[in-house]
Specification:
Helices cover about 50% and strands about 15% of the residues. It is α+β, with helices and mostly antiparallel strands. Strands 3-4-9-6-8-7 form a six-stranded mixed barrel. Strand 3 and strand 4 form a beta hairpin.
Length: about 800
């Protein structure tokens, strides 16, 4: 311990003695370590932290699907009941569905996210309310009276009720219905698959929802029984599914079961993004280590005589190594402390850059920040970094002999081995910079291609918001989906008021907005195109009011749009898109006048195709537009709709007028998620998955490039210093300044070209790992690689040119006299 304290005191004296040199290294380390800590603070809760449930590794998701289906379903309620009744692989199986509520109070109404769940939902997760109680079986399926009890999320309880400890038993009004609060969930509890609800209520269903076996709408999760593996559970569920197909062939034909871990369901396609970011920031740390090692090797020239003499006087080599390692560790510790402070700000910045709508499905990121695992990671990379950047210079210096030191100093330089090592470190820095710049370039091209992708509609000057009509005021027939006259009346009156507002050009509504990733759909048949039993076609379906296509500026290909007179027409009709025609009709075949029929209900009528519209990015900007059927909403009105309002100017400026129009139509209702459609596009998952990493990788690449250029500049400057005597002799015997310039510049450029070549070769392999994040550009895009290579060559030439020009101004008399 005495030796350790001595090393620490000596190290601190050396660091304070060279404050400028120390500051450069500490700042470089703080950038590298801070960036890695920031990304790990986000990666840990997303990929590594255990889910906030009891034994989360035993939780799986269950879903039903069909081969070659365009839509991913979950489960029908009757099948779910059969699963629970006959299975033995799960301790319990629970269900949930996302729902939105209108919360009334204090003279105002607003929309809040919610979810309805089976009574055993929280017990299946292994979570208990922090306050109050769980749901009981008798509170499930009470549709006539609706939900009578609710459990609040912890954040909602704190935010809206001021953490009131007397909240239990208090009533709130949800969708014009009084609901009693019976519990509050723990603070750490989050459930991303349900979009992080503020309010949880027991499952409540219309008769149709609870009895229709071919209507799949409910999400299901299960907890594996002790000793049961996922593969064993899958085998049993396959057997149960086969039996249900045999017993109910019309409803369950071609259904197969899919199982997956709950973690994978929550993480989804965020995993590749996190891994790419973590890999990119890891490269930055490697460049940091190489850069600092090069700086330390340069400084080690001044200390070789000191350590060689100390060795000659009997100093133990292990003691010298421990002294140098202590100095490296002190530098790393100081850099780590500064990096930790910076990472705390960086994490907040990263989380704030995630759109709120996406953060609801990734609630684990809300708690990202400094934690024990993050501190352990910070300590680990600090030690590793100190070893990496301090080991090579330490060995080189501590291993110096007095005879070798004198020989090198007579020649005016360092050993050839150290020079070659320094060259290869700069090569590595440039190569890594190439890889990062290529990655950033590919992501930026993907983002540019995505933003220039024609979505099939005009998002400019378009306001959107959701409205959910409570069943108490707007009842629907029990045999859903049948007529709801009060729903139709509200929709028509509200749209009329919107269209009469000054500055509003058009207004309409749809049940699902484009590019929001919702892929719900239905099975159907086309009249005159026979299909095998239970082999019906399937595609996404949307409900739209008259005027929807004109409001969205979706082009008409053939036929006509819906008109106001169609609302009162008893003839069922639909509009389809071009992708539908290409998928289900022969070339040259006219779809106008043909009829389709949905098969989810045997009483469904045939619907006439009256128009064909252009393709729209219904699900995702990065995916080809799917075949889509648009139903006329007023013929089958839905209680929850997304409204779109085309304005003459900035759409958010019309928020007040739209709210007044809604209050005049029904003052109990609230607008949910009001925003411009351009914001909807910017916050879509497809854009986020390209924009977020492109900016971050671009920032990492810029930092890496700066460090690499500093390294090359330092190498070339050191070369000039090392060869001062040689340059002086060359000038004395007649060498021209352009010859000296070519000599020094050539040496720097050889290192740079090797680094660029290595980086290009590595980039061809490594960029394939991010192929899933790319859109509209190939992972081996030649233009990107060539552009990055040219940029690196140009910047490297500038970095080498400055010390090379300095070399041309060396006075031979001063150089020889100095030597």
């Amino acid at each position: 311990m005495g030796a350790l304290f001595t090393n620490i005191r000596y190290s601190l004296r050396m660091l304070f003695k060279n404050l400028g040199f120390t500051a450069v290294i500490v700042i470089t380390l703080a950038l590298g370590i801070g960036a890695n800590t920031t990304i790990f603070s986000v990666v840990y809760p997303a990929l590594l932290a255990p889910l906030p449930y009891s034994q989360p590794e035993n939780l799986v998701t269950l879903a039903e699907n069909r081969p070659q289906s365009c839509c991913f379903f979950t489960a029908s309620y009757p099948n779910y009941l059969d699963w629970k009744r006959t299975q033995h692989s799960f301790q319990s199986i629970a269900g949930f569905a996302v729902e939105s509520f209108t919360l009334a109070g204090n003279g105002d109404s607003r929309g809040i996210p919610g979810a309805m769940v089976t009574a055993n939902f929280f017990a299946t997760l292994g979570v208990k309310p922090m306050m109050g109680r769980d749901f009981v079986d008798s509170e499930e399926l009470s549709y006539e009276s609706g939900p009578t009890v609710a459990i609040l999320s912890n954040s909602f309880w704190q935010r809206d009720f001021g953490s009131d400890s007397n909240i239990l038993g208090r009533q709130i009004r949800l969708d014009s219905r009084l609901v009693t609060i019976v519990g509050v969930m723990p603070q750490e509890f989050e459930f991303g698959p349900a979009q992080s609800p503020d309010v949880w209520v027991p499952l409540h269903l219309r008769d149709y929802f609870s009895t229709a076996r071919n209507f799949r709408w409910m999400h299901a999760i299960g907890r594996l029984a002790p000793g049961i593996t996922e593969s064993q559970a899958r085998a049993e569920m396959n057997a149960i599914t086969a039996r249900l197909i045999h017993e109910y062939p019309k409803q369950n034909a071609n259904i197969f079961i899919t199982l997956g871990t709950l973690r994978e369901h929550i993480i989804g396609n965020v995993r590749p993004l996190m891994l790419v970011l973590f890999g990119a920031v890891g490269f930055v740390l490697l460049i940091t280590c190489a850069n600092i090692a090069s700086l330390l090797m340069t400084r080690s020239i001044d200390r070789r005589r000191e350590f060689a003499v100390r060795t000659a006087l009997g100093a133990d080599r292990r003691h010298l190594l421990s002294q140098l390692f202590t100095e490296s560790l002190m530098l790393a510790l100081i850099g780590a402390v500064i990096g930790l402070i910076a990472s705390n700000w960086g994490v907040r910045f990263l989380i704030s850059a995630i759109p709120g709508s996406l953060l609801q499905s990734m609630p684990y990121l809300r708690h990202a920040g400094i934690s024990l695992p993050v501190l352990l990671f910070l300590g680990g990379i600090t030690i590793v970094t100190a070893v990496v950047f301090g080991l090579v210079p330490s060995l080189a210096v501590a291993g110096s002999h007095i005879s070798q030191v004198l020989k090198d100093e007579t020649r005016g330089g360092s050993s050839g081995g150290q020079t070659r090592l320094r060259n290869w470190m700069v090569v590595a820095e440039i190569a890594i910079s190439v890889v990062l710049l290529v990655g950033a370039g590919l992501m930026l091209q993907s983002l540019r291609a995505l933003r220039h992708q024609d979505p099939g509609f005009d998002a400019h000057n378009l306001l959107t918001f959701d409205i959910s009509l409570p069943n108490t005021s707007y009842p629907m027939d029990e045999q859903w989906p049948n007529d709801g006259p009060q729903v139709r009346l509200f929709t028509q009156n509200f749209l009329d008021r919107l269209r009469n507002l000054s500055g509003v050009q058009a207004a309409a509504a749809t049940n699902i907005l484009p590019i929001n990733g919702n892929i719900s759909g239905n099975r159907f048949v086309i009249e005159g195109k026979p299909t095998a039993p239970n082999q019906e076609y399937q595609c996404p379906t949307r409900s739209a009011t008259a005027g929807y296509f004109e409001t969205m500026k979706i082009k008409l290909v053939s036929g006509r749009f819906y008109t106001a007179s169609d609302i009162h027409d008893s003839r069922p009709m639909v509009i389809v898109n071009q992708a539908f025609v290409k998928s289900y009709f022969d070339s040259g075949e006219d779809p106008i006048g043909r009829r389709v029929r949905y098969t989810y209900n045997p009483n469904e009528p045939y619907r006439e195709i009256i128009g064909v519209v252009g393709d729209v990015a219904e699900n995702d900007l990065a995916l080809p537009p799917p075949p889509t059927i648009y139903n006329l909403d007023q013929q089958r009105p839905l209680p929850t709709m997304s409204y779109v309002v085309r304005t003459q100017s900035e759409p958010m400026a019309f928020m007040g007028a739209v709210r007044n129009a809604l209050a005049q139509t029904d003052p109990q209702l609230a607008m949910v998620k009001p925003q411009s459609f351009e914001r909807v596009t910017d916050q879509s998952r497809a854009v986020f998955l390209r924009r977020y990493p492109s900016y971050l990788i671009g920032g990492f690449a810029s930092l890496a490039l700066l460090l690499a250029i500093v390294g090359l500049y330092g190498l070339t400057s050191y070369t000039v210093l090392q060869r001062t005597r040689e340059i002086g002799i060359r000038v004395a015997i007649g060498a021209q300044r352009q010859d000296i310039l070519r000599l020094i510049l050539g040496q720097g450029m050889r290192v740079a070209l090797v680094g660029v070549a290595v980086g290009v070769l590595a980039g061809f392999g490594l960029t394939r790992l991010m192929a899933s994040l790319l859109f509209g550009v190939n992972a081996s895009d030649g233009l990107t690689f060539i552009s990055v290579a040219l940029i690196l060559v140009l910047v490297s030439a500038l970095a080498s040119l400055i010390p090379a020009r300095r070399a041309t101004r060396i006075d031979p008399l001063i150089a020889l006299r100095h030597e």
